[in-house]
Amino acid sequence: MDLTNDRDRFSELQARLLPIWEKTSTERAWEHTSVVVPSLSFDRDELAKIGGVSFYEERLLFTLMRLRNPGARVLYVTSQPIHLDIIDYYLNLLGGVPSGHAWKRLGLLNVMDNSPVPLTQKILERPRTITRIREWVGNRRRAYLTCFNSTTLERKLALELGIPLNGLDPELLPLGTKTGSRQVFIEAGVPVALGAEGLRSRQDCAEALSELEVRRPGLQEAVVKLDHSFSGEGNALFRYPPGDTDASDRVQAIDAELENLQFNAEEETPESFFGKFETMQGVVEERIVGSNLTSPSVQMRVRPNGVPSVISTHEQVLGGPSAQAYVGCRFPAAESYRSLIVEESRKVAEVLAAKGVVGRFSVDFLAWGSGSESKIVALEINLRMGGTTHPFQALEFLTSGTLDAESGLFHTPDGEEKYYFSTDALSSPTYRGLLPEDLINILTHQGLSFRPTQQTGVLFHMIGALSQFGKIGVTAIGNSQAEADRLYEWTVRVLDKETGAAGNRRGRLRDPSQEKLPGME
Question: Domain range holding 67?
Answer without folding.
Answer: 3-166
